[in-house]
Write a structure and sequence with these properties.
The chain has 392 residues and is an alpha+beta fold. It has three domains: 126 residues, Butyryl-Coa Dehydrogenase, subunit A, domain 1, CATH 1.10.540.10; 112 residues, Butyryl-CoA Dehydrogenase, subunit A, domain 2 (Beta Barrel); 147 residues, Butyryl-CoA Dehydrogenase, subunit A, domain 3. The chain contains eleven helices and ten strands. The longest helix is centred in the middle third of the chain and has 37 residues.
């Protein structure tokens, strides 16, 4: 049974992008999917060998300019990669996804020429990986006012505090730290971003334990104990860290929406196939029951609608005219509808849906992250409602 999402993508993207999606899809099907269950049961992160294969096919340089060794792709390409990888595993998809959208992207958008030359070629080749240090133990939705601080001491900045929920921390060569630099400044102009080597004196990383989502993805806590960095470590402008952050997250939300739809696409194919194979009552498939059909129809409608919406937003992003609230809305709705419908899909399949080898429980757990990642849905509603409250 062909993937339903492929049917819709043929009408939404051009042949070259569809061919790229197909290459990544087939790579995952042959090289990664057969190994996922074993990694899950062994409770291991994505192996270095798998990351190396992702680098070999150019995924870490997907959106990096060709002059720095990348492929020069746009947001549509990035989301297509996420759809192809995330169909089987969001953990797999978020590894190059976060490396690009949260690691390389802020450097591309806000870095100096010297910073780009120093880092982008290695990032494109997968020899380095940047992690975005935004969330903190005491700061989640209020990310504009970090507790991590950076103070000037002579010609250096000294960074103190802790970041958490940092995706890819285990593999990171550098962390982009969002730190408070002017506590008395106006809102949105109090913080600065810094590029800090993970092996710098005073940087301590620990993998966060007990996590039950994105289990093959690294999620780290990073401590900064009086870390000293030079002025050329500033990314963007001093006290312009909030701008770096929001510019980065706008694209990241589109990628997260894509992960939610990848999970929905997997669940749709799984339940519609199972509904025709599961025989009950008079030796007929359960797919003949209207309640099961309703679940499948609702999933199919949601996938086509939100996929069309997401590709449209990706095009606007690549054109440079996607409003923040639009990125927030497609992420908010895609994560919500995918979560709700996947639960119904599991109900339709019954007890088998709880088994790890069936695959749905993996997506059920991982979909929670799409509801809180890149801004929780509750917090994003405040962003979405602002234009609705403005008078004409």
């Amino acid at each position: 049974m062909a993937r339903r999402i492929d049917h819709y993508l043929r009408d939404l993207v051009d042949d070259s992008k569809l061919e790229f999606y197909g290459v990544v899809r087939d790579f995952v099907e042959s090289e990664i999917a057969p190994r996922l269950l074993g990694w899950e049961r062994d409770h291991v992160l994505l192996p270095d060998s798998a990351i190396a294969k992702l680098a070999e096919i150019g995924l870490f340089g997907l959106s990096i300019d060709e002059s720095y060794g990348g492929q020069g792709g746009g947001m549509t390409d990035l989301v297509l990669m996420g759809l192809a990888l995330g169909y089987h595993s969001q953990s797999l998809a978020i590894t190059p996804g976060a490396a690009i959208s949260l690691g390389a992207k802020p450097l591309q958008l806000c870095g100096t020429d010297e910073q780009k030359r120093a880092h982008l070629p290695d990032l494109a080749a997968g020899r380095r990986m940047f992690v975005f240090g935004l969330s903190e133990p005491g700061r989640g939705s209020d990310a504009a006012n970090p507790e991590v601080s950076a103070t000037r001491e002579g010609s250096e900045w000294v960074i103190r505090g802790e970041k958490c929920w940092s995706t890819n921390a285990h593999w990171a060569s550098h962390v982009i730290v969002h730190a408070l630099t002017d506590p008395s400044g106006p809102n949105g102009k109090r913080s600065t971003c810094f590029i800090v080597p993970m092996d710098a004196p005073g940087v301590f990383y620990q993998e966060m334990s007990g996590k039950r989502v994105w289990q093959q993805s690294s999620t780290g806590s990073i401590m900064f104990d009086g870390v000293r960095v030079a002025e050329d470590s500033v990314l963007g402008e001093v006290n312009g860290g909030f701008k770096v952050m929001v510019t980065t997250l706008n694209g990241g939300r589109l990628f997260i929406a894509g992960l939610a739809l990848a999970s929905l696409a997997f669940a749709l194919d799984k339940v519609r196939r199972y509904a025709e194979e599961r025989i009950q009552f008079d030796d007929k498939p359960i797919g003949r029951f209207q309640r099961v059909q309703d679940v499948i129809i609702d999933m199919d409608v949601a996938l086509e609608r939100n996929l069309t919406w997401l590709v449209h937003c990706c095009r606007r992003y690549d054109e440079g005219n996607l409003e923040r609230e639009r990125a927030a809305k497609v992420k908010l709705d895609s994560s919500r509808v995918a979560s709700e419908l996947l639960l119904l899909a599991m109900e339709a399949c019954g007890g088998v849906a709880c088994l790890d080898e069936f695959g749905l429980i993996r997506h059920h757990d991982d979909l929670f992250v799409t509801r809180v990642g890149e801004g929780s849905n509750f917090a994003l509603k405040d962003l979405v409602v602002r234009p609705l409250r403005q008078s004409d």
